[in-house]
Design a protein that fits this description.
single chain, globular
């Protein structure tokens, strides 16, 4: 049975779903937060910990995010660094056809591992 949790801060909504096979985090709306790490990082940390304990992959899906300021990428980078040094498996999904998403997220390819434990995927 899938469990879904929702978190909202201003215009940013994050949904966390665990279907028993994978943990999925979806971002919606817009992130204008001055310090998004205070809101985003604890959520991503919990998801990564749950996934490691359950031996599941984490999917972080930004395709429905309309806008984010540049500081919103920082907590994502921190989670990717943590996963790269540990046992976590993460796929970051973004909308390749949105120029701002392509610019922001394609730069994260430096975190991709040869074994695809961490992967960055531009989707339509």
């Amino acid at each position: 049975m899938e469990s879904i949790q929702s978190f909202v801060n201003d215009r940013l909504k994050i949904e966390y779903a665990d279907d028993g096979q994978a943990c999925t985090v979806r971002f919606f709306g817009k992130s204008f937060l001055k310090d998004p790490g205070e809101f985003v990082f604890p959520i991503l940390s919990k998801v990564l910990q749950d996934a490691i304990e359950g031996k599941k992959r984490v999917f972080i899906d930004f395709r429905e995010l309309a806008y984010m300021n540049s500081s919103t990428i920082t907590p994502v980078i921190k989670i990717l660094e943590r996963a790269r040094m540990g046992a976590g498996e993460i796929t970051v999904q973004y909308k390749h056809s949105l120029k701002w998403q392509d610019i922001s997220f394609s730069a994260l390819i430096i975190f991709q591992t040869p074994d695809r434990r961490i992967e960055i995927v531009g989707m339509e």
